[in-house]
Specification:
- The longest helix has 35 residues, at 42-76.
- The chain is elongated, with a radius of gyration of 28 Å.
- The chain has one domain (5-76).
- It contains two helices and no strands.
- It is mainly α and 77 residues long.
Length: 77
């Protein structure tokens, strides 16, 4: 009773547009299954970031320290 007809019409249009997009995506997935790439879960992606972030930083620090030590050794000689 209190809803404006335009609002319900607009909501219906948006819902139909979303359905059309979903149907088109499903059709594209059916026609080209070779294009689909399996996606890891969000937890796997987060754990991968935490696992790889620390060793990379340690490698950078080690390589920077060895580069500095190498420069010092050549400066002294």
């Amino acid at each position: 009773m209190y809803e404006h007809p335009y609002l319900t019409h607009l909501v219906s249009q948006v819902d139909l547009e979303r359905q059309v997009v979903m149907i088109e995506r499903a059709r594209a997935a059916r026609e080209h299954p070779e294009r689909l790439v399996p996606r890891r879960s969000w937890m796997d992606r987060m754990l991968h970031r935490t696992r790889t972030a620390r060793p990379d930083a340690a490698v950078r620090e080690t390589s920077a320290a060895s580069a500095t030590a190498g420069r010092m050794a050549t400066d002294v000689a």
